[in-house]
Amino acid sequence: MTPVIVSIVVLVAMFVIATVLPVNLGALGFVAAAGVGVLLAGMSLDDVLAEFPGDLFLILVGLTYLFAVAHQNGTVDLLVRWSMRLVRGHLVAAPWIFFTLSAVFSAIGALFAVAIVAPLAMPFARRYGVNMLLMGMMVIHGSLAGAFSPISVYGTFVAGVVVPTGIPFSATTLFLAPLVINVVIAGVIFVVLGGRSLTGVKVVHAAPTGAGRPSAGGDAAVESEDEDQDADQAPVVGKAQILTLIGILTLAVGTVAFGLDVGVLSLAIAVTLGILCPAGHREAAKGIAWSTVLLVCGVITYVGVLQEAGTVDVVGNGIVALGVPLIAALLLCYLGGVLSAFASSAGILGVAIPLALPFLQQGSVSAIGMVAALAVASTIVDVSPFSTNGALVLASTPEDIDREAFYRRMLVYSGIVVATGPLLAWALLVLPGWL
After folding, report:
1. Which of 120, 158, 237, 362 has the most CB atoms at less than 10 Å from its CB?
2. What pLDDT digit, counting tens, does each position of 358-393 carry?
3. Is the pLDDT of residue 223 over 60?
4. Per-residue pLDDT, 88
5. What are the angstrom distances between the C-alpha of 68 and each of 254, 263, 383, 408, 410?
């Protein structure tokens, strides 16, 4: 077999092994990069290591470190409690509050926004009788709505892959396309999963009053008033929370308005918070998402080897050779979507976008629209219980809920999304040719 075919077989084997066995895909990527690069592509080990994405490493470490600090010192909980207090009068707003929280956290760099919001949103839904599937999917779609902001991990990663190639790129389109599509999907599931039945329901302590009890699809429950008293207590705002809020604001302003490096600035803010408010900082440092850092950096290193070996060019030329650009674009969207439903979206994006670059360089379809479509197709399927976000929601369901039944409901919903999501992204962002 030629080096190109071997490198593709190795890539497929990596995803199969990482799906079936508890082996980090990034670790497999590093091993595969060394093996394929040195043995087949004629690269030295130093050449292979030169493909390591040092700038992305800093971004991942910095952002996850900062938000681990914010979670540890209670700042995230403070923001969520403030938001929860806003819906105490009108329960219909609750799913949208958690959607917005997840979107904001994701947009300003929280890689695991679902991990932050879901453990608070799901018990809230259980307590007040909100449909559990509705709440869980609102949290995930919220995180996906903000996932491609210019200062997010996904947004900076895609820009880092596309911009150096000289292919037309729009950070604004990349941000707004997933945002709009996920807002629309959230609106649809809000209606379909009973969100309208919450209209007119007001919450006094734990007892819903007004236009009837909310429909919860079998998940409804009301806690006693005594158990809910703590929700009415004013959240404590201390020095650590104030400084952390200032730090998050500084991160947003510094990176967007002044073009400062996301990774370096987030690390600087996290370290500064550790110096000024050291309590609990040691535990926060353990919150750095090393498994994700390993995953993303390993996959990207292997993709760099694929590029050096000529694999990316061969695959791209094969897609172009289909002769029907729109069909090729649709196939790429489904490739990213289906694989991402069973693996990491970050890892899939790390493969799908570089594979599409030779195809985009032909100019047969809008490069801006295609990149945005790939971004949507590869992430919208994160509702799957096999993906990280879906698994986090499933794990956050209260213990007294039948998780097996909830899991089956998630499977049905994710199946619909996997079947229609990539098609929707292609139909809206590629087919019209308006981007």
Report:
1. 158
2. 778 878 888 999 999 999 999 999 898 877 788 888
3. no
4. 66
5. 20, 14, 23, 31, 28
Q: Which amino acid is at 248?
A: I
Q: How far is it, in rounded angstroms, from Cα 237 to Cα 75? A: 8
Three-state secondary structure string covering 38-53 = HHCCCCCHHHHHCCCC
> For residue 142, what are its two tokens?
């919220």
411, 371 Cβ separation under 8 angstroms: no
CB 181 within 8 A of CB 373: no
Structural tokens at position 204? 């006094």
Residue 148, CA distances (Å) to 126, 138, 172 in order: 30, 17, 9
What's the first-to-final CA gap in the chain, in angstroms? 40
Total H helices, total E strands in the chain: 20, 2
243, two tokens: 């400084």
Q: What is the pTM of this model?
A: 0.72
Q: Which of 316, 311, 314 shows the shortest CA–CA distance to 359? A: 316
Residue spans per domain, the chain: 3-50+87-236+289-429
SS3 150: coil
Enter the tokens of residue 282: 């040691």
Residue-level length of the chain: 435
Extract the tokens encoding 417: 């999304």
Neighbours of 278 (CB within 10 A): 10
Give the angle 81-83-86 at the CA atoms, nearest 5°.
110
> Under DSSP, is residue 201 helix (H, G, I), strand (E, B) or coil?
strand
Amino acid identity for residue 409 in this structure: R
Q: Could you report the per-residue pLDDT of 273-322, keeping only the tens digit for each?
A: 999 999 878 888 887 878 778 887 888 889 889 888 888 778 767 776 77
DSSP 301-351: HHHHHHHHHTHHHHHHHHHHTTS-HHHHHHHHHHHHHHHHTTS-HHHHHHH
* Tokens found for residue 217: 């699809």
Tokens of 15: 């995803």
